[in-house]
């Protein structure tokens, strides 16, 4: 038994060892396969890295090429634009030259044509005058020949000496008459020639006016071109000055800190020059804007007066339309009354007929009584509805009268508001004139930079900050746009306050020029202040007219 157990155990041990060997072999095979897979994975990873590096390199090179191509395209496009601008300027110059030549040729041809027309008119007038003279001479010759024939016939006849004397006087008077006629004709000819000369001179004046306008246009174009050339010349001069400063500056050749300071100083000087130019231009623009505001205020006052008259016309038209509407309603009601009267007469006739026939008939039936009762009820309802309708009409009429009264009051208030607004604008315009007259702008002395020793601080401010601070200090001395807008807003507020005072019909108004101004715009010196205490005469007259308007309309 024990031998069998031992053999079984040995066989099992052999089997376990064989299985262990097989497992070890399988484990070795798995490790080898895993190593092979790891090697393959490393190879694949290396290949991917190389490929990505190559792709990145290609991408970078392509980006560089694209950037270069884009820069080349930009440079080419800029060159193309520059060439286009040059060609455009050249074409514009050629067009201007051609237009000028064409205008000169046209003017020359016009002058020649005018001269030829004048000569032709003179020739025609001379020809006409000569023809008239020839005809007159022919008539005189025929008259003289007839007189000579008559004289010869009378001489042959027996005539007394007195008759001969009278005949001689008659011939002398006729000769004087012909001489006077010739003088009159000469004067007429002279008048016609003078009229022709006057017409020619008028034509020449018109032509000279046209030439003057053309020359003015050319002068304006020349001025614009000169201004452009001046601006370009200034830019070139600034560039030339910069180049000369850079060439003459010995510190710019080295790499010292003084060169940087000198560059900053030059930049600040250039910025100061530009700020001065901007300040002068802004000063001129401010003066121009003030003048424009003054004109606009006067125009607004006149427009408000025109608007008041226009509102009166619109109110009149609206009242006429309402009157026509009420007349139409009255006609409609009259037609309804006539129809009701006709219906009433027909109803009375219908009632009279049954009453006449009732004497013949013995008694009324039940249905006729029922219809009569219904008819009476309907008549009562009709009367009640008529009363209600009349009440509603009376209410509507009362409401319309009330609405008309409110509209009249509203129109009167609007008219007073417009009058007060126009007078307020006029007063503000006068106030601005007085302010410009008695409060001139103070001259601002721009400090000139003096030469001093350069000291290099530790914290050096940039030239942009210094320029900005100096520009702000200079600009703050002037009244800003915000202050002007505040003054405009205060003007609107004063207008509203004045509207309220007009609606309440206040008798006394006090006005001072600096009351409505903001604090920043108050005058700097006491000597230049102008205080207007009380109300001007025009303002008082305007308020008296405003107070008298409602009383006149009420009457």
UniProtKB/TrEMBL annotation:
It is found in: Cytoplasm, Cytoskeleton, Microtubule organizing center, Centrosome; Chromosome, Centromere, Kinetochore; Nucleus; Cytoplasm, Cytoskeleton, Spindle pole. The keyword Cell inner membrane does not apply. GO terms for molecular function: enzyme binding; kinetochore binding. Residues 34-140, 170-299, 368-437 form a coiled coil. GO terms for biological process: cell division; cell migration; establishment of mitotic spindle orientation; mitotic metaphase chromosome alignment; mitotic spindle assembly checkpoint signaling; protein localization to kinetochore. InterPro entries: SPDLY_chordates, Spindly/BICDR_Dynein_Adapter. One of its GO terms (cellular component) is centrosome. Its main location: cytoplasm. Keywords: Cell cycle, Cell division, Centromere, Chromosome, Coiled coil, Cytoplasm, Cytoskeleton, Kinetochore, Mitosis, Nucleus. Belongs to the Spindly family. PANTHER family: BICD FAMILY-LIKE CARGO ADAPTER, PROTEIN SPINDLY. Required for the localization of dynein and dynactin to the mitotic kintochore. Dynein is believed to control the initial lateral interaction between the kinetochore and spindle microtubules and to facilitate the subsequent formation of end-on kinetochore-microtubule attachments mediated by the NDC80 complex. Also required for correct spindle orientation. Does not appear to be required for the removal of spindle assembly checkpoint (SAC) proteins from the kinetochore upon bipolar spindle attachment. Interacts with KNTC1 and ZW10. These interactions appear weak and may be transient or indirect. Interacts with dynein intermediate chain and dynactin (DCTN1). Interacts with the catalytically active form of USP45. This is Protein Spindly. It comes from Loxodonta africana (African elephant).
């Amino acid at each position: 038994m024990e031998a069998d157990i031992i053999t079984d155990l040995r066989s099992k041990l052999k089997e376990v060892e064989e299985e262990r060997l097989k497992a070890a072999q399988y484990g070795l095979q798995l490790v080898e396969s895993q190593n092979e897979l790891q090697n393959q994975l490393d190879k694949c990873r290396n290949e991917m890295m190389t490929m990505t590096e190559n792709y990145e390199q290609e991408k970078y090179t392509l980006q560089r090429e694209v950037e270069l191509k884009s820069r080349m395209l930009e440079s080419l496009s800029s060159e193309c634009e520059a060439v286009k601008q040059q060609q455009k300027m050249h074409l514009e110059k050629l067009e201007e030259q051609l237009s000028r030549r064409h205008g000169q040729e046209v003017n020359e041809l016009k002058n020649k044509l005018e001269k030829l027309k004048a000569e032709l008119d003179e020739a025609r007038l001379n020809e006409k005058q000569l023809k008239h003279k020839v005809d007159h001479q022919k008539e005189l010759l025929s008259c003289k020949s007839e007189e000579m024939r008559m004289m010869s016939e009378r001489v042959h006849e027996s005539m007394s000496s007195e008759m001969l004397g009278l005949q001689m006087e008659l011939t002398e008077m006729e000769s004087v008459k012909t001489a006077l006629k010739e003088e009159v004709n000469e004067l007429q000819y002279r008048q016609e020639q003078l009229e022709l000369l006057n017409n020619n001179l008028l034509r020449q004046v018109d032509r000279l006016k046209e030439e003057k306008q053309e020359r003015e246009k050319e002068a304006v174009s020349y001025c614009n071109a000169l201004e452009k050339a001046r601006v370009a010349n200034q830019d070139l001069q600034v560039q030339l000055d910069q180049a000369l400063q850079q060439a003459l500056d010995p510190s710019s050749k080295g790499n010292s800190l003084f060169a940087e300071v000198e560059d900053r100083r030059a930049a600040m000087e250039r910025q100061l020059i530009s700020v001065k130019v901007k300040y002068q231009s802004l000063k001129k623009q401010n003066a121009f804007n003030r003048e424009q505001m003054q004109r606009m205020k006067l125009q607004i006052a006149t427009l408000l007066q025109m608007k008041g008259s226009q509102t009166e016309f619109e109110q009149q038209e609206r009242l006429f339309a309402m009157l026509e509407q009420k007349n139409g309603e009255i006609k409609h009601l009259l037609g309804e009354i006539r129809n009701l009267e006709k219906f009433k007469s027909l109803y009375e006739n219908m009632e009279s007929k049954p009453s006449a026939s009732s004497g013949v008939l013995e008694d009324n039936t039940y249905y006729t009584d029922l219809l009569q009762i219904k008819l009476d009820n309907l008549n009562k309802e009709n009367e009640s509805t008529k009363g209600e309708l009349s009440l509603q009409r009376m209410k509507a009429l009362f409401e319309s009268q009330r609405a008309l009264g409110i509209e009249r009051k509203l129109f009167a208030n609007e008219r007073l508001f417009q009058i007060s607004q126009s007078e307020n604008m006029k007063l503000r315009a006068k106030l601005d004139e007085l302010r410009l007259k008695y409060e001139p702008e103070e001259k601002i002395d721009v400090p000139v930079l003096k030469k001093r020793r350069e000291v290099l601080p530790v914290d050096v401010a940039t030239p942009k900050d210094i320029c900005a601070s100096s520009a702000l200090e200079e600009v703050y001395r002037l009244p800003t746009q915000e202050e002007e807008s505040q003054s405009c807003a205060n003007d609107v507020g004063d207008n509203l306050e004045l509207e309220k005072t007009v609606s309440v019909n206040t008798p006394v108004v006090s006005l001072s020029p600096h009351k409505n101004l903001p604090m920043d715009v108050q005058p700097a010196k006491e000597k230049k202040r102008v205080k207007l205490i009380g109300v001007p005469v025009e303002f008082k007259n305007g308020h008296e007219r405003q107070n008298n308007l409602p009383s006149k309309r009420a009457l």
